[in-house]
Each structure stands twice: as structure tokens, then as C-alpha cells.
Amino acid sequence: MGTNTPNNEKPPTAAKSYTPLFETNRRSTQSQLLNKLFAATVFLGICSIWFYRFTHPNPTTHRWVWVGALFAELWFGLYWVLTQAGRWDPVFRSTHKDRLAAAHPDKTLPGVDVFVCTADHTIEPPILVVNTVLSLVAYDYPPDKLAVYLSDDGASEFTLYAMLEAARFAGSWVGFCRRFDVEPRSPEAYFAAAAGEKSEGGGGGWEEELVAVKKQYEEMKDRIESATQLGRIPEDALLQHKEAFSHWDGNNKYSWRRDHPTILHILIDGRNPPPADGVNGSSLHLPTLVYLAREKRPQYHHNFKAGAMNALIRVSSKISNAPILLNLDCDMYSNDPSTLRDALCFFMDERKNHDVAFLQLPQMFDNVTKNDIYGSSLLVISRVEFPGLDSFGGPMYIGSGCFHRRDVLCGRDFDPNGSKLDWTNYGRDHEHTVEQLEREAKPLADIASDHNTLWGTEMGLKYGCPVEDVITGLSIQCKGWKSMYFDPKREAFLGKAPTTLPQTLVQHKRWSEGDFQIVLSRFSPAWYASGRISIGLQMMYLCYCLWAPNCLAVLYYSIIPSLYLLKGIPLFPQISSPWVLPFAYAVAAKYLYSLAEFLCSGGTILGWWNEQRTWLYKRTCSYLFAFVDTILKTMGLGESGFVITAKVADEDVARRYDKEIMEFGVSSPMFNILATIAMLNLFSLIGVVAKCLVAKDGVGVRVVFDEMGLQLLLCGALVLINWPLYQAVFFRKDKGRMPGSVTATALVSALVVCTSFVFLY
Ligand SMILES: O=c1ccn([C@@H]2O[C@H](COP(=O)(O)OP(=O)(O)O[C@H]3O[C@H](CO)[C@@H](O)[C@H](O)[C@H]3O)[C@@H](O)[C@H]2O)c(=O)[nH]1
Ligand SMILES: [Mn+2]
């Protein structure tokens, strides 16, 4: 069982005055024991299934059918064993911010650099980015110690324009936030929550100021949105920021994104408070705010987000050089102004901080509907599995919402006798002017500072993998560093989950493809990580990294048994045979447990059902494509990209999303597969029911049920879970229904497969 006691304690003298800054709690011994007993019974069931399959080859079918079932059941069983690591000994952390404040007055707090990444102003609208940035600028933290950097991989003048506007509005917004201690500090989210609400104890003119600041915000939003819509920056802004916008003069709109120099602007210099004539007569000290678009040239690979992050690490080392970094996606606004202080409780705890390389917080979303129709809230991962990982050495780095130690991310090796963070090595340059800083930092974002250097291999985020975050975190943990997981009561960050099925499937294709590449990479959790990280952690890495090959077993189970049902050949034990028991028990226990877990994590019953559907769709589509693409890539054919998830949808789509109606809409090869499998199961079920009805005296029903009860249940469950898909194919008229071409292809292919299977095979 894992413990959290570090192996190099402080000498006894210091131990006396030690007050922990964070707490670690585990579940009670009884509940853990009960959980393990239960898992043991499920495992027994799984072993019995394997035994049954080994000892009961079916003589009436081809050998491969039996081998396929054996393979699938071995896979499901072993995979289930892997998932148990995440449930073995979960730990839950809580912080003592009061103690942090007592031990470290604001003056002595370390600097924090926040990195926000955006890449495309059409699917990541500038106003969304602005809201995220403003929520970060408004953190409850000493302004001279906080710097917010935006990396714009789209090099969009509209994003820069939005940032200039944000910098101007920041004074009023941050002033308002500080005076009335508001939460959350993303203007859009705050105004939505405050609508119709009365001031609670805020008093002191809250309502009047709210009206004023809201008006200012709406005007800014208007300017930003109309600039983007018209495709033109307003004249006054062009005049005022002539130099800033000069980069875009006469450029070729089509090649620009992939071919431009570095653009760097320090929009707010937060080193010192401004002279005392700011908002409301008082000088308002704001944190540093920086816009960066790193250099891009078509002949050099830019390495997606990893490249952007590494440029940010280098540039920030010149401008603010904070020892602690926070990484966020552009849609993840801060929902809690005190999160930085929470995080510091982990990095500044005197005894336990020496080996913590990064601190991951859960990714939560503010646009998930009540029953989470695409299973995108990652509830069980956030509430069950990551606390489980935390006891084995810490969770993975999953991108947004992660705090890093700068030295470790820059490649520092772990030394068990002294890996403490030396805060004195960091801090700001107070001698140079803003212009000088810009001039000196700029080349650090050029290709020359990145290409053919250690960046992307030994330093910073790793290149070449679509999940740069996971592989980077793993490589850090393999050096001996730990990570920690912190799931605060009030969500720290809220982002945008995908709102259509195609988006969800494409996102999961990227994730599972990246994860599978890691298994085949130098840092494979299967080989390289052995002995470097704990076995529990290794198992969980494998659990996520083997998502893609899952497709094989799931495809087998969702196609073959149904076809054999239609043909009338049983593949599972008869209902009257005792061998049914292990199947029934293992499946029922697994699913009831998963339902309980889901409900305890804050989900709904329908939400769980929806997640099972998404589970099936991801495994039969996303993972299949990821699997095939990864294999092709390892053979040197093709290259993996990074399809960015859209953070907006048109009104029509958004309305259906709010009503929890599944969105198909476009024709995609993924849908061909989904729909074909769904049709195939429907035909099989209809076929077998028809057969029963035709047979006389109800003999048919009894025989079919006894001989093929499990197959019938499996097929029935598949039909039931596909219900929204049948609706989209047969009944719906809206634009989100299944496109006619997909429907036609699916119907024909399913019909051909079913008939040829029954009559020819
Ligand atoms: O060339 C690129 C591509 C993407 N991004 C940014 O990367 C972030 C993540 O992209 P998104 O499309 O939102 O992907 P998600 O799947 O939602 O993101 C999760 O998964 C990614 C890895 O697949 C991680 O990079 C993210 O941090 C993590 O939140 C966004 O802020 C993008 O702007 C870039 O900066 N440059
Ligand atoms: Mn995202």
C-alpha cells in the first residue's frame, strides 16, 4: 500500500515547528477491505469465464469464432484488472491556506507564470480567450508576482486586438473584483450568474458598479465580435497601436498562419504599481500580461501545443521567470480566485514539497448538460481514478489545469538527497524597460531557439505525440519525481466540452492515438516505466494508453454474437447451465459497481446510461481509427496531427445540445461504422424475434431463450443503447439527424452482411 511519507525527513529541530500545509485522507480500512473483497469475487467470475471458454470449444462453428471470443474475454478481463489499480487506495487532498498565509506573507510568495494557449480564432473565439485571461489577471495574488501569457498559434490580429481591449478593461474589472470579492472572475460567467441576483453583503454600491462594469464589458465584447465578423480591426485601434498591427500589413492571409515572424507584446507591465491616478483615484496594480505568437515557417514543424508551451517557457524566463508555472487551455477560465494559493500549499509544504514536480487539478466543464449526453465530464476519472493514481505516485499531466515546477519541466533530474526548489534562483528583472525586455525575449520564441536544440526532447514538453501532456508527465515521473492531484470543493477551472458527437469522437481519436503511441514509444509504460514508477501507476498508465486496442474486443463483441444469434448458433452457455453464473455475475457486478461509482461522483442515472453509449461509440470508432492510424504511422505511413476542438457551435446545434438530442449532422466514415453496427444488431434482433413468432406453440421463444439467452440479451442491450441513433436515422427531421448517405450505406451494408452471413457462410 502506498504511503505519502517522503524518504528524506527534515532534521528533528526543524520538525518541531513543522506545520503541514495540506492534508491527505484515505478511505476507512473497512470500506477498503470491502471493496477489495468485492473485486476478488468479480475476479473469480472472470477466471471462471476464461476457464469455461478454454474448456468449451464450440464444434458447430469455425475455430476462429471461438478464438475470437477467447481473445475478447481475456482482453476484457485483463483490462478490468488494470482498472482496479485506480480503485485500490484512493487519497484525497485538502489545503490549509490560512497556514500558508501565516507562514508566508504576500511579500515572500513565489512568482507564478500562467500560460494560456489558443490556436485558431474561428473555433476559439477571441472573446472566450479574453474571458479566460481576465479571470486569471483577477487572481487573488500579489500582482508583481503574477504574469499571464497568451500564446496565439493562430497569429491572429483579432486575438491580439481582443487582448489589447482586455488589457484596457482589466483595470475596471480587477478593481470591481477586488472591491466586492466576486466569484467567478470570468466576466461572462460572473454576469450570467449575477443576473437577477441582489448584492449579498457586498453592499457599498455593488449594484451601481455592476451595471457600469457590465456596460463596459458589453461594449468591449461588441467591438471584439464585430471586428472578427467584419474581418477588420477598427481604425482607431490601428492608429493607436500602429506598430503592433504593422505585422499584418499586406500579408498573405492564407499562408500567414504558417509563415510569420515572432510577435511579442507586453501589454501590461506588472512589475511596479502605476502612479496614483488610476481607477477611482487609487492606483490599481495589475499583473503582467503578455501576447505571444511564436515564429512559424512552413519548412519547420511547429509541434502544436508542445511547441507553443516551450516557447512560452523560454520567453517567460526572460520576462518574469517565476518558479511555478500554470498551464491552461484558452477555454478554461478560473472559477476560484484563490486557486494559486491552494496550489502553493503543495509546493511550499516544508516536508513534502521536495519531490513534487507537478500538481494536476481536474478538468471540469461549464457547458455539460444535466445528463452529460456525450459522457464528456470525465466524472469517474476525476473523482475516482485520479485520486487512486495519487496514492501510487501521482496522476498524469493532462494539459489544462496543471501546475509545474519550472526547473523540473526544463529537464532537472531528480536527486533523492536534494531536489528542493530553490526559490532564490528566480525572480524578476527590474532593471530593463519594457521595450528592452520585449527585444530580448523575442528571439527566444524564434525557430532558431527551438529547432535542433534540447527543447522537445530533454527540455520542456515532448514533441511528436498528440498527447504531449501525458508523455511529458510520464517522462518526469520516470525520473523519480512525484505528482499530486487536488480536487478542490469549488471547481478551480471550467472549460468547454465538445458539444457534438463528431467532435467528441475526434477528440477521443486524438487522445487514444496519442496514448497508444506512448505504449510504442521510448517511454512505454509497459517497458521503460518498469521499476521507474510504481506498479499501480504503471497499470493505470497502461489502462489509458491501451484505449485504442480496446476496439478489437469491443468490435468483436458487438458484431459476432448478434450475427450468430441470427443464424441460430449459440456462442455462450445455455441459460439452464451453471456456466451462465460467472457471465451473469461478472457483468452485473461490473456494471452495478460502475453505476454506483458514477452516482457517487455526482452523475445521474441517465448520465451513466449516456456514458455507456459514448463508451461504445468511442471504442468502435475513435479507437478503431486511432489504432489503425498508429499502426500505419509506426510503419512509416502517415503522420498524426492535432485537430483542435471547436469551442463554439451555431445556434441550431447549441439548442439541440441543451435539449440533449444527439448531434450527428455530418457524414463521416466514423458514422458509417456506427450506423452499420447499429443496423446489424437491429436486423439480428428483428430476425430472431420473427423466427420465434413464426415457430408454433411458443416453442421457438423458449428454445431461443434457453439456448441463446445471453446472446439475445447482448443484442437487445446493443439495440437499446443505440436508440438515439435509430431515431436519428428513421424519425428525425432536423439538421442534426443522420445524413441520408450514411443511412443508405449503413442499411445496405448491414443487410448484405446479415443475409450473406445467414445464407452463404
Ligand atoms: O497547434 C496547436 C494546437 C492546439 N493548441 C492549443 O492546445 C489546447 C488544447 O486543444 P483542444 O483542441 O482544446 O484539445 P483538448 O482535447 O480539449 O485538450 C486536452 O488534450 C490536449 C492533448 O490532446 C492537451 O494539449 C490539452 O491541454 C488538454 O486540455 C488549446 O488551448 C489549443 O489552443 C495550440 O496551442 N497549438
Ligand atoms: Mn479543450
TrEMBL record:
Active site: residue positions: 153, 469
GO CC field: endomembrane system; membrane
UniProt-annotated location(s): Endomembrane system
Protein's membrane topology: Multi-pass membrane protein
Positions annotated to bind UDP-alpha-D-glucose: 124, 153
Example GO biological process: cellulose biosynthetic process
Binding, Mn(2+): 305, 329
Main localization category: membrane
Keyword Membrane in record: yes
The UniProt record lists the keyword Iron: no
MF GO annotations: cellulose synthase (UDP-forming) activity
InterPro entries: Cellulose_synth, Nucleotide-diphossugar_trans
Transmembrane segments: 33-52, 64-82, 541-559, 579-609, 671-690, 710-730, 742-760
Keywords annotated in UniProt: Cell wall biogenesis/degradation, Glycosyltransferase, Membrane, Transferase, Transmembrane, Transmembrane helix
Protein name: Cellulose synthase-like protein E1
Species of origin: Linum tenue
